[in-house]
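BUG-418 | component: ligand-complex export | severity: low

The export step for adenine jobs runs without errors, but we want the raw record kept on the ticket for reference. Input record follows.
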Amino acid sequence: MNFDIKDKNLAAKGKLRIEWADQDMPVLTQIRKRFETEKPLKGQRIAACLHVTTETAMLMETLKSGGAEVVLCASNPLSTQDDVAASLVVNSGIAVHAIKGEDNNTYYKHINSTLDLKPTITMDDGADLVSTILKDRKDLINNLIGGTEETTTGVIRLRSMASDGVIKFPIIAVNDAETKHLFDNRYGTGQSTLDGIIRATNRLLAGSTFVVAGYGWCGRGLASRARGLGSHVIVTEIDPIKAIEAVMDGYQVMPMKEAAKVGDVFCTVTGNKNVVDKEHFELMKDGAIVSNSGHFNCEIAIEKLAALSKSRRAIRDFIEEFTLSDGRKINILGEGRLINLAAAEGHPSCVMDMSFANQSLSAEYLAKHHKELKNQVYSVPGDIDRNIAALKLKAMEVNIDKLTPEQEKYLASWQEGT
Ligand code: ADE
C-alpha cells in the first residue's frame, strides 16, 4: 500500500482516540452496520480530501464497510491529526497521504497521490480535489460517476465551476443539507473555534471585545459562544440582511475599520479574502489577537502585516507575534489557517456524526442514481436529510409529536379560514 504519513508508531494512540469519537457518532454507526451487510459501495473507488481527524477516520471505516476502496489526503496542510493517519494505515489498511504542517508542494503532491486511485467518486472539503482534476488530471474524468462536497467554501467554488460550464460530473453539496450546516457550521464551528483560540492563547475571554467577521452559520455560532463566555461581541458583515439579524440577535455591528480599533480578539469566518487587511492592522490595539476559522488562509492579509512589521517570532505554539515599526504587537494564530483544526481538534464528533452520515448516504445515492444525474451541483435529497435527523433524535432519546390525520388534512387544504 502506498502512503505518506508522519510516523506509524503513533497508530496505537490514534486508535484509542478514534474509538472515543466513535462513541459519540451513533448515526454513522448505524449506517456502517447496514453498509457491512448491503455493500452499496461495492466496486467504487473513493478519493477523499478531508481534514484527517478521528471523525473522518470513522467515515473512512464506514465507506470501506460499504465495499468501497478508499484513499485519503488532507484538505488543509495544518489540520491533520498524525496519530489518526497512522492508525488508518496500520489498523484499518486505508492509504493516507497527509502530514500535519506539510508545505504547499507536499499538500498538492498528496492530492495527486490520492487521485492515482483513479476514483469513481470524489469526496472534497474545499474543492481542491475537483479543481486539481479539472486543471491537471482531466484523464480521470471518464471514470467518475460523481462527487460530494463538505463545506460552504467548496460549494461556492463548485457552483462557480458549474456556472462556467466546466464541471464534468455531478456533485452533491453536503453542506446544503440542514442536518449539516445547522449543526456542524453553527454549533461545531462555534465551540471548536473558541476551543482553538483558547488552547492557543490561554487568554480569558470574559470582558474582552471579540470581533466576528461574517454572520453566516459559522459566524452565528461563533458569536453566540463568544458571548456565552462573557465577551462583548462585535459582528462585521457585507450582507444587509445578515447584518440586521446580527443587530437583532443583540450584537454591535460595524465596519471592520471601526471594529479594528477596539477589538481584542478577531476571528474571520467569511470565506472571502483580505477581510482583515493592511488598513485594519494599522488601526489595531497593541496585543490584538487575530485568527481565522474560514476554510482558506486568505481571509487575513498576513504578508501585508509582515511588510508592516520590523520583526516576527513564534512566541508560543500556534502564535506568531508581529512587531510593527511603531512598537505595537499583533498576534496571528495558526498561520491564519482554520484555528479550530490547527490548534484544537475540529468540530466535536456529535455534529460530525450528521455531516458524515450525509457524506456516506450521498455516496450511496451517487452509486445508485448517478445515471439519472447531470453535470451540476445537487442538494442532498430531502428524505436523506430528514432520515438523518430522525436517527439522531432517536439516538438522543428525544421523541417528537406526529401530525394527526385532521392536521394533515388542514395543512393540505385552503378552504378553512378564521
Ligand atoms: N471540519 C471541522 N471539524 C472537523 C472534524 N472534526 N473532522 C473533519 N472535518 C472537520
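Assignee comment: Attached the raw record above. The chain has two domains: 8-180+348-395, 187-342.
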